[in-house]
Specification:
Glutathione S-transferase Yfyf (Class Pi), Chain A, domain 2, globular, alpha+beta, 4-stranded mixed β-sheet, Glutathione_S-Trfase, Glutathione_S-Trfase_N, Glutaredoxin, transferase, 2 domains, Glutathione S-transferase
């Protein structure tokens, strides 16, 4: 059985949990990370030298990095409807997964640490305003993409790209600041919410 190491409140662990629910993969999860087993232990570092969650073990195969994990799970367990093998269709999905990790994820960092985590190191009003503006800029990019497709981030059907993006959208709405009106993002949020797996691991009250 698939083994998942990481606390269930982590946004990156939730990617893996949501993928497993969509792909009907049985798993066992163990609590590692903040407040649980230490990821800087010798045991954990042997699995991931970065001391970060999640980590999966699938038999004797170990993998870290959440986006790599969900790609592996889709490929390994035959979820071709969500992650097709055809090169161009897969590349379009991958570009949005990578955009979430490299651009959108970075844009929310200061605002999230300030407004949700209440980090003392992230309470500068000017930096917070700049962070919220930058986050909003990337969400407007997403809004235009969703308005173009009329449905999901990579096209008319739910794909693997919607897992990291969908969790980002949940974080956007759960972070308390004045959001610009983004109707396509709001419609997307409601569309995703029709999926039972999203209620379990996405829109579940955790930012």
């Amino acid at each position: 059985m698939l083994r998942i190491l990481g606390r269930a409140s982590s946004i990156n662990v939730r990617k893996v949990l949501w993928a497993c629910a969509e792909f009907e993969i049985a798993f066992e999860r163990e609590d590692w990370g903040s407040g649980f087993k230490a990821t800087d232990s010798t045991e954990f570092l042997a699995l991931n030298p970065n001391a970060m969650i999640p980590v999966i073990q699938d038999g004797d195969f170990t993998l870290w990095e959440s986006n790599s994990i969900i790609r592996y799970l889709a490929s390994r367990y035959g979820a071709t409807a969500f992650y097709p093998g055809e090169a161009q269709a897969r590349a379009r999905i991958d570009q949005w997964i990578d955009w979430q990790a490299s651009d959108l994820n970075r844009s929310w960092s200061y605002a999230f640490m300030s407004l949700v985590r209440h980090s003392p190191a992230h309470q500068d009003p000017q930096a917070l305003a700049a962070g919220c503006a930058e986050w909003s800029r990337y969400m407007r990019i997403l809004d235009r993409q969703l308005a173009s497709t009329g449905a999901y981030v990579a096209g008319s059907q739910f794909t693997l790209a919607d897992i990291p993006i969908g969790l980002s959208v949940n974080r956007w709405f759960e972070t308390p600041f004045e959001h610009p009106h983004l109707p396509a993002v709001r419609d997307y949020y409601e569309r995703l919410s029709e999926r039972p797996a999203y209620h379990l691991h996405g829109r579940n009250g955790t930012p």
